[in-house]
Design a protein that fits this description.
Layout: H1 3-6, E1 21-26, H2 29-41, E2 58-60, E3 66-71, H3 73-81, E4 87-91, H4 92-98, E5 103-108, E6 114-121, H5 122-127, E7 135-140, H6 143-151, E8 156-161, H7 168-171, E9 177-182, H8 186-190, E10 193-202, E11 204-209, H9 210-215, H10 217-238
Parallel strand pairs: 1-3, 1-4, 7-8, 7-9
Antiparallel strand pairs: 2-3, 4-11, 5-11, 6-9, 6-10
Length: 239
């Protein structure tokens, strides 16, 4: 069966642009990781989608009822929450930070594995007991997630929003702690930081807009099933 045969053709084979289902995909490392899953699910973007020199942000697919938009990872959640995209793929860190009631993530894609952690300089950790914290200042890209995490322990978190280079903040006196994603932990080590605690284990998820799922249940359910089957097939083939 070809990729085209796997697509949802139905009665939408001549769907107008405004009625198409929009799938929001993030730029960067997640996009490369999910490419085999999309292929196994039977959804193939036009060739230009993978051309980094192409400045367009919206692309067609082998299914005439679906277009793909390529956006920043945090913007995937925004497009989903407000219904501009009906499906999207994002890291669980983004979904946890956004925490919007209209976003539902039914499929774990088992890619993009990393961890959300609290980290500090070695000397800071040696000089104090984290269990004694009542107020902390934290540099992070995830202020909402960070506040919720510390509030659950009865700790007030003052968050300084940074979009990158979090590891510089403690050494330059901006704060004593950071909350960030780590894979191997080598960046923390290289910048004199140590992990204090793990907040969550993160993977990439297929997410949908709840309202869109209610209004277009057959089409969206079809792709939820296809992506779920693709993840299982790939997991079994590599086991």
């Amino acid at each position: 069966m070809s990729n085209l045969d796997n697509g949802w053709m139905g009665t939408d084979s001549v769907t107008s642009s405004k009625d198409k289902l929009i799938l929001a995909l993030p730029k960067g490392r997640i996009l490369n990781a999910i490419r085999p899953i999309m292929a196994r699910a039977g959804l193939t973007p036009e060739d230009a989608f993978f051309d980094e020199t192409d400045r367009r942000l919206r692309f067609s697919t082998n299914d005439p009822a679906i277009d793909i938009i390529r956006v920043r990872s945090f913007d995937v959640a925004t497009f989903l929450a407000y219904g501009a995209a009906q499906m999207g793929i994002a890291g669980e860190d983004v979904l946890m930070e956004f925490d919007h009631p209209d976003i539902y993530a039914p499929v774990d894609l088992n890619t993009g594995h990393c961890r959300m952690v609290v980290a500090s300089r070695k000397e800071t950790l040696a000089a104090e007991d984290p269990r004694s914290w009542s107020h902390v200042r934290v540099a992070t890209k995830y202020p909402n997630l960070t506040r919720r995490h510390f509030a659950a322990r009865g700790v007030q978190a003052e968050c300084i929003k940074l979009n990158g280079a979090m590891e510089l903040a403690p050494g330059l006196g901006l704060c004593r702690r950071i909350v960030d994603l780590v894979e191997s932990g080598s960046t923390l080590t290289a910048n004199g930081l140590v992990e204090v605690e793990e907040i969550a284990r993160i993977t990439s998820k297929l997410a949908v807009n709840r309202v869109a799922w209610k209004t277009r249940p057959d089409m969206i359910s079809h792709w939820i099933q296809r992506f779920g089957e693709a993840v299982n097939d790939i997991s079994h083939s590599t086991a």
